[in-house]
Write a structure and sequence with these properties.
The complex is a heterodimer of chains A (263) and B (305). By secondary structure, chain A is of the alpha/beta class. Chain A has one domain: Decaprenyl diphosphate synthase-like (Undecaprenyl pyrophosphate synthetase, 3-Layer(aba) Sandwich). Chain A is globular and about 75 Å long. Chain B has one domain: Decaprenyl diphosphate synthase-like (Undecaprenyl pyrophosphate synthetase, 3-Layer(aba) Sandwich), CATH 3.40.1180. Chain B has nine helices and six strands. Chain B is globular. Classes of the chains: A alpha/beta (263), B alpha/beta (305). The interface between A and B is large, with 56 and 49 residues. Chain A: It comes from Brassica napus. Chain A: Its EC number is 2.5.1.-. Chain A: This is Alkyl transferase. Chain A: One of its GO terms (molecular function) is transferase activity, transferring alkyl or aryl (other than methyl) groups.
Amino acid sequence: MGGEVRQLLEQIHRFSRRCLFRVLSMGPLPTHLAFIMDGNRRYAKKRGLEDGSGHKAGFSTLMSMLQYCYELGIKYVTIYAFSIDNFRRKPEEVQSLMDLMLEKIKSLLDKESIVHEYGIRVYFIGNLGLLNDQVRAAAEEVMKATAKNSRVVLLVCVAYNSTDEIVQAVKRSCVDKADRDTERIQLVDIEENMQMSVAPEPDILIRSSGETRLSNFLLWQTGNSQLFSLDALWPEIGLRHLVWAILNFQRSHSYLEKRKKQL
Amino acid sequence: MISLRVPAPSSFNLQRFNSGALERRWKLGRDCFLSFTPNRIGLGVRSTKSEMAPFTAAEEETLPEGLQPELMPKHVAVIMDGNGRWAKNQGLQPWDGHRAGVEALREIVELCGKWGIQVLTVFAFSTDNWIRPKIEIDFLLSLFERTLKSELETLAKNNVRISIIGDSSKLPKSLLKVINEVEEVTKNNTRLQLIVAVGYSGKYDVLQACRGIAQRVKDGEIDVEEIDEILIEQELETNVTEFPYPDLLIRTSGELRVSNFLLWQLAYTELFFAQEMWPDFGRNGFVEALMSFQQRQRRFGGRKS
């Protein structure tokens, strides 16, 4: 009996969400959303749970967000999973994060996973050489397995720093233009060598847990993105936050489009 | 900080109007004697005498209540946005807004000098701003030139060093001459470094750093493998200062974006978005931004413990 009620409630939620999304779609929708998923550990502490469960709760929030983005028709989602700076944390925490990542990355290969259900293409962006062999191999396997998907693109930034991305792009630009006039190096030369060039620039960047800073994430790509700093911790982020962000985006959208046309 | 409540559309803030803005408008009327005539033939703006009082040692110590001296940021960056909208709200012309903006900037420079902030970077003119109407651009650049000339003496006396960063290739020759002169005269000053970004954008800065590095690689001075973050940092135009990374970035006028200002340097900068327009920002807004900054926990990717 309980199971049926739950199913019914789930269907009602899904239906009302579909209506809400249909209303939202009347206005312009962002093409690319980026998330800094901050606050997992604070969430675990707040709830009196053990350390690892904060990240697990964060992962399920991420899956919900992906589902909403898919239902809304938002094509690109980028997430900041692990920064190069995070390697400086205690080895036990880094190891447990790597283990969790390995587990979740492998789960993406399952036939029933959200990746296959929604046709998500997954990219792992970052200095993958810094990861241990198992995680790197799993990441490469997922990238290969989802290469044909095209409905949604999920970019997972792991072992990533924006400054590191720029350094790699500068290196490649120097090599490409080594035999030509260096004054001829243009912005596009650097941009096409950026790992994130597989996606357009994010329209919105959402950071949870109340911090208002970029923390070396997508510095190059977020020059014109709207930045939202939400007080809620990442596992507490829900549909209402997403809707609020999109409504704000729609409010300033016409002004931005005018500016873009002028440029 | 952005809360869940949808922010109100930015409109005229009565509180701010009464604190300083009225005085600014009066000064404006005095200085821009063509502001209120219907037929504008030209822009007759009298050059103003600087109203900045000389810094005194006593004033240096008094921080407003609530601010702690040991938590003051070393480098503050400001996007002075909203001059045009402020002018429109007041029923004035855009150039009146820019003039009011200069007054507001004077106030902030003075406060930075008094409160021990060592570097202040302001975003005066972006590479994107070249699309504005020519008359506005001409006014902005001539306002900038006039302000530099008239402020030089005061700044030199108050031990302020000025540096200009940005793509100078499109700037008029007379302005370039004044810039060189001002930079030369103030280059040994130590109390506050004021960096003015004119014709600047973050991507442009990284691009010119990349070109510089590519040239060095081509000349055989460095190897491609040696290119790292420190090398790029040294090539960026913000290498004019010892503290190229702002601790705090303030943007006025309620826009929630960075608009391509200081890209690389903002990696760990705390961002503060103020609702009021730049001419209304003033001391109160600045104190609010500093208080917000002092309450933040900066971890740089690590953990608090």
